[in-house]
Amino acid sequence: MVDPTPEEIRLHESQTHAAHWRRWGPYLSDRQWGTVREDYSPYGSAWDYFTHDRARSRAYRWGEDGLLGISDNHQRLCLAIALWNGEDPILKERLFGLTGNEGNHGEDVKEYYFYLDNTPTHSYMKALYKYPHQAFPYDRLVAENGRRSRREPEFELLDTGIFDDDRYFDVFVEYAKETADDVLMQITVINRGTEARTLHLLPTLWFRNTWAWNGAEEETTPTLQAIHTSNDLNIIEAIHPTLGKRWLYARGDGELLFTENETNYELVFDTPNPSPYVKDGINNYVVNGAKAAVNPDLIGTKAAIDYVLSIEPGDTHTIQLRLSDLHPSELGLDLLGDDLNSSAPFQNFDATLAIRQQEADEFYQRVTPFSLSEDMRNVQRQAFAGMLWCKQYYHYIVEDWLQGDANVPMPPPERKRGRNRAWFHLYTDDILSMCDKWEYPWFAAWDLAFHCITFATIDSDFAKYQLDVLTREWYMHPNGQIPAYEWAFGDVNPPVHAWATWRVYKIEQKLYGKSDRQFLERVFQKLMLNFTWWVNRKDTEGNNVFQGGFLGLDNIGVFDRSAPLPTGGHIDQSDGTSWMGMYCLNMLEIALELAKANPVYEDIATKFFEHYLYIADAMNHIGEMEDSLWNEEDGFYYDVLHFPDDRQIEMKVRSLVGLIPLFAVEILEPETLQQLPNFKKRLEWFIKNRHDLRRNVACMETKGKGARRLLAIVSKDKLQRILQKMLDESEFFSDYGIRAVSRYHAKHPYCFYTNGMEFRVDYEPAESTSGLFGGNSNWRGPVWFPVNFLLIESLQKFHRYLGDDFKVECPTGSGQMLTLWEVATELSQRLTQIFLRNPAGQRPVYGGTEKFQTDPHWRDLVLFYEYFHGDNGAGIGASHQTGWTGLVAKLIQQLGEYGDEEGVTESVLEIELGSESIVV
Q1: Strand residue runs (E) in 17-165
Q2: Is residue 903 classed as helix, strand or coil in its secondary structure?
Q3: What is the pLDDT of residues 831-887, one digit of tens each?
Q4: Between the CA of residue 468 and those of 24, 394, 505, 625, 760, what are the distances in Å?
Q5: pLDDT-derived band of residue 689, with 50, 70 and 90 as boundaries?
Q6: Is the pLDDT score of 772 beyond 80?
Q7: Ramachandran region of residue 429, left (φ > 0), alpha (ψ -120 to 50) or beta?
Q8: Locate the Mannosylglycerate hydrolase MGH1-like glycoside hydrolase domain: which residues (predicted)?
Q9: Are 245 and 224 in contact (CB under 8 A)?
């Protein structure tokens, strides 16, 4: 038995409640302004109602944002940095970006910041912000992007020239936990330029404003107060009614500034302020010289220490702070004595920081102990770090949001008929994994499922909680629907929750030897309600063909699937139906696992097996006329448009819609069937008696490799024909993964005409050139990690059944024949090489951005974008979408672990994907 690493011990202590190691973490949002939660406008114009410009002056209702900061797990007390270079019109307290209406390709953060390291308990964290010497070009970024069309690239911060000649500061922020409630903070500033520059560095401590709403009593207001000031040490005492007392120890000579985290009503609403000290008081003091803007009594609910640093070219300045539950006397400080040892709070600071760094290295070496290049380890480590930094405190009580608060003007009546009005039960007060804490600072159900796969490799408890909590009654709708995302909780995303639940269960079983059936059963019970919702709401004609709606793929189709069709009628969705086939198989797999301990679940497994048969049959034979989503001539699946007069037409778009049927595949192991005789009996009855249903359930009767049985919508012959297109480099198979739409449509756009209008699908490898279906709709050619990951898994499953004898040409036309396992490996390698240096030393993710490719202070910093250019692999969209793009960390782990040793790979994979026939 290998001794656990210190980080693994902390995880265990957290799980058993021996120590609350997760209380403090990177739970601040990167953007609270412009969110639905803070929107009290009549018609849901969130971006325009609460702007970046108002954020420094107006108190938030539902959360806080900050720059590379931390908070406790209920976001009562927050700690972050603020910066001022002497040129900017405002303090740099939060990240700036364009709103959805301002960007020529939708919303977009316009800053450079990097999440470099983090551990699951946040015992060690490190991040970097690059701050220009010159005035930040806020207006220029807005104006230039507003001028550009959708056919032009975005105008980025580097394009302004503000980083030319390295005229910027690198600001590194590190956190290390001495104990669960004792957090060390080190800020390291490096002047990268050739001239001496002055920087105001302001570590800032504040309470989230919880006292201004719903008539909260005055005595519940927390307080921050200076209890010691000197040239060597400043101490701020924080007192909160539920968090208790904390002390911030700040080393060095900095001026203490105090104000209140209260709205500046005079500026925002043109009404008198109840207090002269408001949220933007520190900004007004430092930037504008308004001496009366801060409280001379050094008390308030927001405080900062203003360090004025004069930094020579290439020099480094370091500031150390400590946020602790230890009273000064416990650190050997006698505040009443004459001989104060001001260095006492920092005696072990450097040693603790170094130890936590080393422990982080040990932990990640344990996670991936295989032979990897230094570059692969760097990419994987930053991917894990980005996912952990993108945890956020998410608070939203929809009923209170709809009704408004007693102490402020009531919301307009229109909101009672607007967004999320049917979700009045939703009550969130949790640490959740965000897609991107600036671009998407809210949970999204189908994104979260993919996050959990990667999280499971480093923190299975957190992964399980994420999946569990979304099915709880304060999230899931009473009708069984899982909330999609805050802009529209009632939207429809692909049903991948069961898949993620099963995968997390199996990953934990493999890595940690734990089979958490309680978790599996709890989520499964709620997912049965969700499955029923899908069947009742999305199968309009009761023929097991689904009209899912949005399905998260935005503009991949001809029409907006969230809106009524311009033709009337409905669409039989190849992808919607395939997602449901996959859902059935995931639920079947979970039910079979639970049935091993409770035979009642055999009946439920049978139910999902039968339902899967109906869906699989319907994919190929629908109704009396036996219309099909499968086109035999093209060898591909398409959506079918139904007109009100019962006419039907195939919409021949070569897209992921035709590849998603590959996801509905599962293997039944002989050992499982032997353990569950009742289920086996029912299965064999179907094989014998229901020829009409089993005709399109691939290979059910055939004993495959290892005497397994295969359940798949796609038969062996169909699989071969689909892969011919999927692996064609002139169609789907790019150097960087599978494109969302075939490149065939670059020269052959699909056009549909109705009511004098043209609807079309072109191949667009990067951002969409139109605002169709929303400004961030980009599924017409780019590479997306989540669907590529599912394709890899599906290929691996097919290989487990078909074995090495089944080979396909990869790439199509190359003459090279590969097994499906080798195809999956090739796809994994193409995806990972997006981030890795190629032989020319370039990272495809950064395209032609020279500074990221060649500058030694930039080239090893990795951003994990939302999606990637279908032809050159350049990152596009949200730049910190580590959530599902963080799957690259899992792919790197698999590539390192399995390599090309197929036998080893398969034995491990069987445990992860479902089989227990081989124990490793």
Answers
A1: 24-25, 67-72, 77-84, 97-98, 108-109, 113-118, 124-132
A2: helix
A3: 999 999 999 999 999 999 999 999 999 999 999 999 999 999 999 999 999 989 999
A4: 22, 16, 12, 43, 40
A5: confident
A6: no
A7: beta
A8: 440-544
A9: no
Q: What CA–CA distances, in Å, run from 389 to 60, 68, 117, 555?
A: 21, 9, 8, 30
CB atoms within 10 A of CB 313: 13
The full 3-state SS of 707-747, as one line of letters, equals HCEEEECCCHHHHHHHHHHHCCCCCCEECCEEECECHHHHC
B/e letters for 378-412, b = 16+ CB within 10 Å, e = fewer, are bbbbbbbbbbbbbbbbbbbbbeebbebbeeeeebe
Is it true that the peptide bond before 89 is cis, omega within 30 degrees of 0? Answer: no
At residue 255, what are phi and psi to the nearest 5 degrees? -80, 130
For 663, residues 6+ apart whose C-beta sits below 8 A from its C-beta are: 578, 579, 581, 582, 790, 791, 794
Q: Which residues contact 786 (CB under 8 A, 6 or more apart)?
A: 446, 447, 450, 884, 887
Distance of CA 677 to the CA centre of its chain: 41
CA distance 162 to 7: 40
Q: What is the pLDDT of residue 401?
A: 95
**What residues have CB less than 8 Å from 348, skipping those under 6 apart?**
178
Q: Retrieve residue 869's tokens.
A: 């250019």
Amino acid at residue number 251 = R
Element (H, E) at 233: strand 233-240
Q: How far apart are CA 247 and CA 206, in angstroms?
A: 12
φ/ψ bin of 457: left (φ > 0), alpha (ψ from -120 to 50), beta (otherwise)? alpha
Within 10 angstroms of residue 912's Cβ, the number of other Cβ atoms is: 17
CA angle 740, 98, 762 (to 5 degrees): 25
Domains identified in the chain and CATH numbers: 6-367 (2.70.98.110)
Judge whether residue 192 has pLDDT over 60.
yes
Q: What confidence category does residue 622 fall into, taking pLDDT thresholds of 50, 70 and 90?
A: low
Assess contact for 557 and 653: CB atoms under 8 A: yes
Closest alpha carbon to 68 in 95, 89, 91: 95
Span 222-279, pLDDT tens digits: 999 999 999 999 999 999 999 999 999 999 999 999 999 999 999 999 999 999 999 9
